[in-house]
Design brief:
Number of helices: 4
Oligomer: single chain
Shape: rod-shaped
Distance between the termini: 18 Å
Helix content: 55-70%
Largest sheet: none
Keywords: Membrane, Transmembrane, Transmembrane helix
Strand content: under 5%
Structural class: mainly alpha
Number of strands: 0
Length: 85
């Protein structure tokens, strides 16, 4: 029963958001025209920011995977997993 509780772990939500925005910025960075690159003084700022966001997303998701949140037992459950009736 811990899986539904861990579904909305804040690290997973933040990592997912960073991943989505990182992919969007990375694709935008690859497709930037010369005027956008010139405007940023020769730096593909969207590409580099997108890649950095993907690294942060990976860090959050790896952290969530390696150190799962401790979910407290339900007060209705016995230590052996059976329910009180």
């Amino acid at each position: 029963m811990a899986a539904p509780r861990r579904l909305f772990d804040i690290r997973r939500v933040i990592g997912g958001l960073f991943a989505v925005y990182g992919v969007i910025l990375t694709v935008t960075g690859f497709l930037d025209g010369s005027s956008a690159i010139h405007k940023a003084e020769g730096v593909r700022i969207n590409l580099w920011t997108g890649l950095a966001m993907l690294v942060v997303a990976a860090a959050f998701l790896v952290w969530e995977r390696l150190r799962p949140a401790d979910t407290p037992d339900s007060p209705d459950e016995e230590p052996d997993g059976s329910l009180n009736a």
